[in-house]
Every structure is written in C-alpha cells, then in structure tokens.
Specification:
There is one protein chain. The two termini are 15 Å apart. It is globular and about 25 Å long. By secondary structure, the chain is an alpha+beta fold. 10% of the residues are buried. The chain has one domain. The chain has helices at 20-25, 37-43; strands at residues 4-5, 45-46. A two-stranded antiparallel sheet has the order 1-2. The structure holds zinc ion (ZN). Residues 11, 13-14, 16, 28, 30-31, 33 line the site of zinc ion.
C-alpha cells in the first residue's frame, strides 16, 4: 500500500482519539483494536503531508 499510510486516528470501537504512536501502527492504543478493511477506509489518510 504505497502512498497511503494507515493511521487510525479515532478508534471505531471505543471512539477514543488514538495516541500518535499507536495510530501510526494502525492499532488502537486504548483497546488494541485492529481495524478491518472497511474501517481502514474511514481512517486511512493519504501520505501527502509526509
Ligand atoms: Zn479502541
């Protein structure tokens, strides 16, 4: 998945703003939830800024 970085900013399960480090890994830092593909579509952001 080049050009797209999976960053889960807000966990769909616990609705918490994720910590940057956990968000970068695509895992919720609160409940350790790993989003499914359909969830990633919501959370994925383009890597334009980097
Ligand atoms: Zn969570």
């Amino acid at each position: 998945m080049h050009g797209i970085r999976i960053v889960m900013k807000v966990c769909p399960t616990c609705s918490q703003w994720n910590s940057p480090k956990a968000a970068y890994k695509g895992v919720c830092g609160w409940c350790a939830y790993i989003p499914l593909c359909e969830d990633l579509e919501l959370a994925a952001e383009r890597d334009d800024a980097a």
